Amino acid sequence: MSTDDPDVEGIFSHTPGVDRGIYIGYDSTQQHWQILVSSPDRFVLRTLIETSEPISDLTAIGFNPNTLPRDDQLLINTEQGLIDQSQEAGINSVPIAGSSIVSGDFDNDMDLDLYIVATGPAGNRPNILYENQGDGTFLSVPDAGGATGTNLGIGDSVVTADYDLDGFLDLFVTNGESPRQLNQDAPYQLFHNQGNDNHWLEIDLEGVVSNRDGIGAQVFVTAGGVTQLREQSGGIHNKAQNHQRLHFGLADNEKVDEILIRWPNGQEQKINNVPVNQLLHILEPSESFAPGKPVYTVGSESGVFVWKNTFDGAYRLRTVGAEDPTQFLVNLISTDGLQDVTPFSLETNDKLEETEFGFSLDSQLVGWQDGVDFHLAPGAKALFSVTQDGVANPRQLHVGHEGTPLSPDGWIIDSDEFPLRPDFTPGEDLGLFVGQGSSPEELEFRFNGDGNFHQTKLSVLSSEATASFSPVKLDLHDELTTLNNGVTIEGGVSTGLDGLDVTIAEPVQIGFAYEQDSLLPPHRVNPNLQDDLLKFPNAYWLPLATPYGQPEYDPSVNEGIFLWLDEQDFWHLRMTGSEEGSRYVGSIVSDQAAINVQTVKLEETDVVDTTDPLRIDFDFRVWQSWEDGIDFRFPEGAALTLNLEEPGEGAADLLHVGAEQWPVSELPLDLSGW
Predict the structure, then answer these.
(1) Which string of DSSP letters, residue by residue, matches 177-236?
(2) pLDDT(661) > 70
(3) d(CA 74, CA 134)
(4) For the segment 605-658, what is each residue's pLDDT rounded down to a tens digit?
(5) Are strands 655-657 and 560-565 parallel, antiparallel or unpaired?
(6) How far is CA 89 from CA 137, 140, 230, 283, in A?
(7) Who's near 316: CB < 8 A, 6+ residues apart?
(8) 283 and 407 in contact (C-beta within 8 Å)?
(9) CB distance 242 to 169 below 8 Å
(10) pLDDT of residue 49
(11) What is the pTM (predicted TM-score) of this model?
(12) What span, in angstroms and rounded, lies between the C-alpha atoms of 391 and 584?
């Protein structure tokens, strides 16, 4: 429109408050423009006026200068429901119209503050930062602590993220609320938190049994007698999403006493005595290994399934394919030689290669299954890796009768594929630094501290006995355990480093598992090296059919023999009977004398004979609703077997081992290695 246009002269005739419309006119006498809005009901108009000359004498017509935005509400969630604490909290001390809000501990003082993006109908207002006073009230921080924002555009949304991982939450604000014409010059704004001396902890959750991001998990962090709660919701809020990493301010506390995680599937995980000022990557634990074959359908699903049917039976490992061609690579390294390695349904394009301490299986299949059966030696552990089409993913793996996924524990890698060990600064760069040393025949493992004390555990295994292991800079606080084909080092690091050198005489497979502060930290393994080989753990400790834990049984209902081992290395043997009565005759035989033997609920007809220090003979008669038993303990490393002569054939069917009540396939039962 132009002042030279006679058609713009004056305001079109209308009845204010009755006629609906926008009326624009020019008064050539006064030399000013007038814009009027009329409506019988609510009418919202946002207008951008652009001129070729500067605007002067801007005057509001009919505006109510006393109109204030509606009060904000702060609703506190209590056992009695939501309670309005808005007035007591003081969150309306500054009248504002907010378009987006985030909460976070911006000063790391162990309580949640509030940041509000404020706006008006035609332009921004200064954003507000409310600091939590720790007593349920909030005070407005002058100039929002430097994040008042811009007056250009209309405030849209805000998200929080510690983008530089300095332990303090930063803010990203957008100013692009509609209409577009009002925001064409509005900037995006990144406000960097300058921080203070307070401590912090940040946590990334990774679900294994639960959903991948752990959505729905509750995380309780206790430090200095104060417990804070964060719920993993993915960071979603109005039109925006915060970084879903969980952030905790810790004030002047120099350690976290406890982290308690309640995962969405109901299980709880505790981690104690955690150093501050670090990022933790916490994998959901998965330790369920119930006896029996899992349910799967060959040809319609793909994955790797591992199970045992009995306490003393073979492991069954099956690779299962669906309609599309797929390749599974499975490597296993045990701490002792395997027994009875037997291929299952392998074709000419599949490869099973046995090593001195394990095997490698290359399974290529379409709508079929391959596999291998094997026994672990008594007392042995094994690390095994699984990849499908070159990708490591714990959801490819299903163990036990319930087909539960496993949490990864480490890596198995060909020795000649390790990268060069990256450089690091001792006492500053936290993590495990691993790779080739001065030659491909030398592998170096270095776990380094950052000034805080961190508990560490490193296990390294070789598929062949040709590798040699030499500890580096271990001190009195570090414990070295030598294995048949590797070592385990348990200790800690602070301002220095510990390590291990592995000399490779010929190419082998190397398996290693690393724990830092009781967690596997993938982001702390070669943290400064962008290396896809070590980016995702591919190996797991093979779950064991353990005798640990007291089984649940009712002597009035359950007839049988129940055997378990407690954390003090005491074995417990209990017999329950039938209505007609049951007789159990057997023996416990060892190559070393028993340390302690105690009888439990014996009657005159029961016999326990310990005349021979290397054996315990027993003869029990038990009726329904009663139980007899023996508690016994033998030296660590002793060979130990349980045999039952009576009730004769079928006696093995009555025996149940551990909390999972593992069945056994035959007697005598070897209990060595526990």
Answers:
(1) PSPGGGSTTPPPEEE-----S-EEEEEEEE-SSS-TT-TT-EEEEEETTEEEEEE--TTE
(2) yes
(3) 15
(4) 899 999 999 999 999 999 999 999 999 999 999 999 999 999 988 899 999 999
(5) parallel
(6) 4, 11, 21, 37
(7) 293, 305, 306, 307, 308, 309, 344, 371, 373
(8) yes
(9) no
(10) 82
(11) 0.84
(12) 52
DSSP of 314-341, one letter per residue?
-EEEEEE--SS-EEEEEEEEESS--EEE
Place of tokens 């940041």: 115
| Residues 674, 669: Cα–Cα separation, whole Å | 13
Cα gap 573→608, rounded to integer Å: 12
Angle at 79 between CA 112 and CA 82, to 5 degrees: 65
How many angstroms separate the CA atoms of 631 and 593, rounded? Answer: 15
**Burial class of residue 214 (count of CB atoms within 10 Å of its CB; 0-12, 13-18, 19+):** buried
Both structure tokens of 175: 């100013």
Residue 533's pLDDT band (boundaries 50, 70, 90)?
A: confident
In whole angstroms, give the CA distance from residue 626 to residue 647. Answer: 17
Give, in order, the Cα–Cα distances in Å from 416 to each of 396, 503, 542: 26, 12, 25
Whole-number Cα distances in Å, 537 to 220, 435, 490? 26, 15, 20
Longest pairwise C-alpha distance within the chain: 126
Which amino acid is present at 593?
A
* Peptide bond before residue 95 is cis, with ω within 30 degrees of 0: no
Look up residue 463 and give its DSSP letter: S
Cα 79-235-250 angle, rounded to 5 deg: 70
Q: Using DSSP, state whether 86 is helix, strand or coil.
A: helix
Outline where 77-167 has alpha helix (H).
Answer: 86-89
255 touches 380 (CB < 8 A): no
* Beta carbons within 10 angstroms of residue 376's beta carbon: 22
The pLDDT value recorded for residue 68 is 67
Question: 408, exposed or middle or buried, with CB in 10 Å at 0-12, 13-18, 19+?
Answer: buried
Sign of the four-CA dihedral 630, 665, 402, 392: positive
Find the Cα–Cα–Cα–Cα dihedral 276, 199, 268, 564, rounded to 10°. Answer: 30
Locus of tokens 């596997």: 520
At which residue do the structure tokens 């003090």 appear? 568
Residue among 513, 521, 527, 539 nearest 457 (CA):
513
For residue 530, give both structure tokens: 């962008």
Contact status, residue 535 vs residue 405, Cβ threshold 8 Å: no
Place of tokens 């995702």: 536
Q: What is the token pair recorded at 520?
A: 């596997």
List beta partners, residue 147: none
Residue 38 CB contacts under 8 Å (≥ 6 apart), including other chains: 14, 15, 16, 17, 18, 19, 20, 21, 23
Residues paired with residue 118 on neighbouring β-strands, in sequence order? 98
Phi, psi of 111 (to 5 degrees): -145, 160
Cα-only R_g, the chain: 35
Q: Which residues contact 64 (CB under 8 A, 6 or more apart)?
A: none
CA distance 317 to 10: 89
CA 620 to chain centre: 48
